[in-house]
Design brief:
The chain is an alpha/beta fold. The chain is built from eleven helices and 15 strands.
């Protein structure tokens, strides 16, 4: 059986791989919109034996750089009929359930679900996708003030970015999830600096940090300062350009911003490098968590300088990659339904337009005020 999908070219038997991580990745122009193999749960490579679902895709979102991820470019993801399918955010309807006789499935045919598909398997830029039970949760209903007809597209912006934000703050950042359930004013004595606050992960990190009662310092590009100030309302706003020009400490002190207890980096590059090398406004014992860049991206000499600075300041750096988590999806869903969390849609494309959508993302011609969504099936 076949379905319509967006995918990279397949690989014939004996053919050498076209792509290689990290120096020879695909481009948006390599994406094809053709027939691809219908999901076959019995052949899917998974680490755990658990209930598997065939989901009819309603919407997915695309992410900058995802075509070049090492998990995506594994040779096993390239079949004769087609290569990897992008779009690991998922909103869709359960179409079929495959489970062991001794297991009671969590979801039923017809359920509207959302989730994050593991990066080493095909994504949701297709009519159908296979998902594991721990990758999914029941999709939340929209809040009263949200247009129901656009809700699936809004939901598609959340799983990857929202789970990254919640794991950065409450997993790797050391905060407690209970702070989201009961606003704790005593938490305001703790200050979090969020680099890349206007990006798809940053906007959700700012919102979650505020819900947890933290003193939030949001750093973003000058062009998006107004968007962050108006929509996210952090306690303080810094601009990346000024941080690079004068340094983080020089930027913070005139604003009477307390020293930082936690840094969440959503941008990497020179902004993270500058922050790691100039930690005068970061408290001893603070954690610096990056979702954008490991230290190895900076070369041996710079890494040595950063490690020396962290030792002197007694700070800890950590880079991580988000993992699917159905419990955290339920938490995000409740916040969305109650109107406490908001997703932002930059633009909506059809499945046939995915190549142009990905090109728009990679060429950074988006406004930077939300994610680019593919609407596959309108309910």
């Amino acid at each position: 059986m076949y379905m319509q999908a967006v995918h990279l070219p397949g690989l014939s038997a004996g053919e050498q791989p076209r792509y290689r991580f990290p120096d020879k990745g695909p481009a948006p122009e390599d994406l094809l919109f053709t027939s691809a193999s219908y999901p076959r749960p019995e052949f899917e490579r998974t680490a755990k034996l658990q209930t598997r679902y065939i989901v009819r895709v309603c919407a997915t979102a695309l992410t900058r750089g995802e075509l070049t991820w090492i998990e995506v470019l594994q040779i096993g993801n390239f079949e004769t009929h087609g290569g990897p399918i992008p779009g690991h955010d998922l909103v869709g309807i359960i179409d079929d359930v495959q489970y062991e006789p001794s297991v009671v499935p969590k979801f039923s045919k017809g359920d509207l679900v959302w989730g994050l598909i593991s990066f080493d398997r095909n994504g949701a830029a297709a009519e159908y996708v296979m998902a594991l039970e721990d990758e999914l949760a029941l999709a939340p209903f929209p809040p009263p003030d949200h247009a129901a007809e656009n809700w699936n597209n809004t939901l598609a912006t959340i799983p990857l970015s929202g789970l990254t934000a919640i794991q950065a703050l409450f997993g790797h950042g050391g905060l407690k999830l209970s702070q989201l359930q009961s606003y704790n004013k005593s938490s305001q004595s703790r200050t979090v600096l969020i680099l890349g606050a206007a990006g798809s992960v940053g906007v959700l990190t700012v919102q979650l940090a505020k819900l947890a009662g933290l003193n939030v310092v949001a750093a973003c590009g000058e062009r998006l300062n107004g968007f962050v100030k108006q929509n996210l309302e952090p306690d303080h706003i810094l601009e990346h350009e000024t941080i690079l020009r004068t340094g983080l400490s020089v930027e913070m002190k005139p604003l009477s911003i307390p020293d930082v207890d936690l840094v969440i980096d959503c941008v990497g590059g020179e902004i993270l490098k500058s922050t790691l090398l100039q930690q005068g406004c970061i408290r001893a014992g603070a954690k610096i968590v990056s979702i954008a860049s490991p230290l190895t991206a900076y070369g041996d000499e710079t890494v040595s300088l950063i490690e020396d600075t962290c030792r002197q300041r007694k700070t800890q750096f950590e880079f991580f990659i988000v993992e699917p988590n159905s419990v955290e999806l339920d938490i995000l869903g409740e916040l969305l339904h109650n109107g406490k969390l908001r997703g932002y849609v930059e633009a909506v494309y059809t499945l046939q337009e995915a190549r142009g959508a990905m090109k728009r993302i990679e060429e950074k011609t988006t406004s930077g005020k939300g994610k680019v969504v593919l609407e596959v099936y309108h309910t």
